[in-house]
Design a protein that fits this description.
21 strands; 37% strand; five-stranded mixed sheet; 3 domains; RNA Polymerase Alpha Subunit, Chain A, domain 2; disordered N terminus; elongated; four-stranded mixed sheet; 6 helices
């Protein structure tokens, strides 16, 4: 049964069949949820197309805060709905009509982790005044409130380097476009986190004397990125180093059993060395050896990763890049 009262539309959910009324009551809620989804989608499309990746990440980083606020007020409304629905069902509409909202006071002082606790509440009228609850039957005197407690911490970004002859950490200059990142999480989760490592870079795999790489920033478990960016760029420059290529035919194998024999298919490999110009001038092809470890290989034609060694240059000169040697193992 629906009736017109005081210029507003009312629906009687107490008397008569419920199925049609519940469906009609739910339609505006479904429509508002759909509009909210479209609103969020429009945000992502417009910002992603017009403002770039950093702005899009900034929009996404606010979702946790918005969800926290929405869920907090949804929790408050659930408590109010219980009270209102119970008294509406009992026919005490005049008393219930005074109630516009419920207020819960949550003390977060000294909280260091997510707070989950039952709190008492007050009923308020439309002007924010307390409504006496003596004449209103209340199903629950207290409401369970869950309030996540977040701290924000700025953490430095670090990079580890794998050094080798001719590609040592002391031979490079490097810098990051973003040197720190701010993350949010429970204080207990952040307490022991002092930095974020971007991983290890093998300097011998950098084939030129300068390189830029975009690195993903890993976020610790239980934390959220609130910086507005998810990557940083590293710029690596080798100082006073040159490269030179040699054709090397000194290839040997290790790791063969007593009954195995290795025949080379690759007779020479062009190897690029990096080092100071003066040291490279003194390197000859006789100083360079290629070694392949066949311990993990069985009979047949195989392509084996190669180790390049440069003798007599005090680790100042070394090979850059990956190398392989093809050969045949027989028994």
């Amino acid at each position: 049964m629906a009736a017109q009262k005081r210029g507003g539309y009312r629906m009687d959910m107490v008397h008569g069949p419920l199925a049609g009324k519940v469906l009609l009551f739910a339609l505006p809620l479904m429509a508002s949820s759909l509009l909210q989804l479209l609103f969020n989608a429009a945000d992502v499309v417009v910002v992603g197309r017009c403002a770039g990746e950093a702005a899009l990440a900034a929009v996404g980083s606010t979702s946790s805060l918005i969800n926290l606020l929405v869920n907090l007020f949804v929790g408050f409304s659930v408590g109010t709905n219980v009270v209102v629905a119970r008294d509406m069902g009992s026919g005490r509409e005049e008393d219930v009509s005074k109630v516009a909202s419920a207020r819960i006071e949550v003390d977060l002082a000294g909280a260091s982790s997510t707070l989950r606790k039952e709190f008492s509440y007050e009923l308020l009228d439309s002007e924010g005044n307390v409504v006496p609850s003596g004449d209103i039957r209340i199903s629950d005197k207290q409401i369970m409130v869950t309030a996540p407690i977040y701290a924000i911490k700025e953490l430095p970004l670090t990079v580890k380097f794998k050094s080798s002859p001719g590609s040592r950490e002391e031979d490079i200059r490097w810098e990051l476009t973003e040197t720190t990142i701010s993350v949010a999480g429970e204080p207990a989760s952040l307490e022991n986190i002092t930095e974020i490592s971007l991983g290890e870079i093998d300097l011998s795999m950098i084939l030129s004397n300068s390189e830029q790489r975009t690195l993903e920033i890993p976020i610790p478990a239980g934390c959220e990125n609130v910086s507005g960016y998810a990557t940083t760029t590293i710029d690596i420059q080798f100082k006073n180093m040159e490269t030179r290529t040699f054709s090397v035919s000194n290839i040997s194998a290790i790791g063969l059993s007593d009954v195995q024999h290795f025949s080379k298919v690759t007779n020479s490999v062009d190897v690029t060395l990096r080092g100071p110009a003066g040291e490279l001038d003194e390197v000859t092809e006789d100083d360079i050896r290629i070694v392949v470890d066949l311990t993990e290989f069985g009979a047949g034609t195989v392509s084996v990763p190669a180790i390049v060694l440069v003798d007599g240059h005090d680790n100042l000169v070394g090979a850059i890049g990956p190398y392989a040697v093809t050969g045949k193992i027989t028994s």
